[in-house]
């Protein structure tokens, strides 16, 4: 419980730390504050997935109903065509000299020339009003009053006229009322009429479009459907054949409904024709990268070991998936939010700057769609993803809880589970759970399906008025006969061809004046739509009851199932542990504590395996043949870890090929550990590797692959200590030392203190050149001697230098030393290599130089080996001690006598005598080569490991002679190291921790101003560290403190 509480506090502190504060002013903190907002939403959604889905579904249903009731089916909101249809279809009458100035009826589809004067006649009805109210018309509408209630208006201004009529409030005789053409008094368009009207508009657009536009739209629709197919394929590769991709589309559809609702509520009209043209391009441009990225992150975190999740302890199993989702959100949310913000900003800029009204409207709508898509991604889709993984996890763990303490006193079967105080089997629990989810989805689908059918039923009064205005019983010609005669007289007098459209009468009703309308508020708007959908009392009450029951049952069911999954997983894990213990472990009591410590880790890996099953395409495992087929097709990342292990053990997947096959370095390391653990040949010894304490996560393996190590199964942490500060050439340094030997860092610290008191270390670099010693041979001794003479000549050396130097920018051949052994010729190339240690650089140059030598008079030369131990590399050799290899450094310091006495606890004469007897005479008696020192290899190895050097080269790099002298009462100490091989680029120096240490020393990477200076400075620093260590150890030996110090620091009991 303590660990669980600690993890909970840590998580809470993390969330608090991410909360935006008023003091954050930098742009990075501002973005982090915005990016942290979506991180709380997925956590709540993953803890309450069913409730989140229900809430979103209710909101979508309300928005959908509101669109149907107040927007989509309002005829007067759909442009000129629908404004006309809102008052019914008119009749057209045509008069001209050709008709002998008589009215002839024309069909509405008739097309006449521009010379025809086209007017419309509109009659306004004010039932029971005496006298008729006076209407004041705007001057720009060109309205002619034919009588008190009948008006003539140019047909091209009919749209504006009807809009004015719809919105105008005409004063009545009673000051408390006004005449108004209220929206609820208008006839509603049915869904079939809406679709018919939209289809006609699309056909019209198609007819007037150019062939290029048609081809463009066809390509856009094809690309859109390919985007959908790509979504399904991406989800299929991640293990979901249908549901996750479908959930993404549902979430996007919900975002579209929310965006359309908000856009229309804000008064921005968006026609279906514009949507039909713009949506394909929106889908293609935006795509579904964000849901796919989030899904990949969640599944990737689900693959991780359970001990990496922030929830441990009692609630580990029940919160495993929410923890994975939380970790994935923390990783991906900033990038996803940034992507959405950029896209929304671009669309808003388009809506503000575009000169095309349709484009402005669509950009505004698209911005809202993306906003709601982001919200739903972190809530609705996250809930579905959580439910999907929870269901598969529960099915893996047995489907329910193992009842323990509650059933200890009775004889009920422990394989059953209690649900609402009833005993049910796991299979019945799963069926009941899936049945409830199916019922919930079905009820919501039924609700949304029947709402449009009920919404098109208008009130009785409206229906009656609609039939009265649109029915065939109304004779528009006779009702407008007087107006037609008036217009005909004007046409005859002017000789103007005239076309008149007679519209059905528009009916006004008295409305009481109120300060505000409840339907104009957002809450009233939604409530109005929702109440209108509740007209069917039986069906509506059934839907509400089913929704309430669904929420309660699903909430309690998931709570019980999660606890059951936890208990079942624990029980199964214990059983598996008991079965996995080998006979040798059972017989050896000393192994019991280790087994007990491994039990929680094994439980976590069982949970990890359960989560891994959620990533497979089906609940049934793939056969070996299927796995081999996926491997051949290059789809190995789709395989689970256990399937990859089976393939490798079967010989289909080599250990060394995991990184290239999986394209995931960390996962490759994890799978390799599992393979080695289960290898039949070594499993008795290696079975614990997969769950061992050897770490492998949180490491940049991309810098290791192909550079530093192969068949990686983890990394070996070594304690890193800092010794110093030590003044080296008037600059202070802390020396990084990676070691497991106690007292070593402390000794360098003491030596540094004494050296600093004397003024610090002075260093000199006497030589710099890496060596490579190939061997070539000839058939005769004469030819071998001739080749040696040529190489030793000035011409030969110049030719070889030119050939060598042509292979590198930084490497420069300095000298060649030759030696004969029979017909074999050994050549020791020595070259500067810049800031690199230089083995690869010099090997490449030597190979090319030898080929040049063969082409320059020695075609019979045979190359025995590119490296023939004449270098000599990673072996004790006198040639390195005498001629040097790599960097040759001398470091010296002078320590006053009082410092020797106060800090080192000895005297100068004792130090000088001990150095002669131990480091010089003692080493000579042992026949040492380059080992005239106390322990130079200790510091060289520790600093090599810390800075990414090759530890094997400690053999020659630790060549050192320590000299001590009494100079006017002070101790002068020096170390000469002729063959120190170091570099600051390449090899282990590319790894993150080692780069950090080089950076701390100020020598990371190449020195562009003075190539090679960083590597030379590193050699000076290491030599100075050796000097401090030599001083301290010799002082301890002279004072007799060595054994005491080591017993104090090396033999301390380890912390358990």
UniProtKB/TrEMBL annotation:
Q: Which Gene3D superfamilies match?
A: 3-hydroxy-3-methylglutaryl-coenzyme A Reductase, Chain A, domain 2, HMGR, N-terminal domain, Hydroxymethylglutaryl-CoA reductase, class I/II, NAD/NADP-binding domain
Q: Which reaction(s) does its UniProt entry say it catalyses?
A: (R)-mevalonate + 2 NADP(+) + CoA = (3S)-3-hydroxy-3-methylglutaryl-CoA + 2 NADPH + 2 H(+)
The EC number(s) this enzyme carries = 1.1.1.34
Query: What does the entry list under GO cellular component?
Result: endoplasmic reticulum membrane; peroxisomal membrane
Q: Which InterPro entries match?
A: HMG-CoA_N_dom, HMG_CoA_Rdtase, HMG_CoA_Rdtase_cat_sf, HMG_CoA_Rdtase_CS, HMG_CoA_Rdtase_eu_arc, HMG_CoA_Rdtase_N, HMG_CoA_Rdtase_NAD(P)-bd_sf, HMG_CoA_Rdtase_sub-bd_dom_sf
Which SUPFAM superfamilies is this protein grouped with?
A: NAD-binding domain of HMG-CoA reductase, Substrate-binding domain of HMG-CoA reductase
Positions with biased composition (Polar residues): 566-582, 590-602
Q: Where is the SSD domain?
A: 213-387
- Please verify whether the record's keywords include Iron: no
Family assignment from sequence similarity = Belongs to the HMG-CoA reductase family.
PANTHER family attached here?
3-HYDROXY-3-METHYLGLUTARYL-COENZYME A REDUCTASE
Protein name per UniProt? 3-hydroxy-3-methylglutaryl coenzyme A reductase
Which organism encodes this protein?
A: Aspergillus ustus
Q: What is the lineage of its organism?
A: Eukaryota, Fungi, Dikarya, Ascomycota, Pezizomycotina
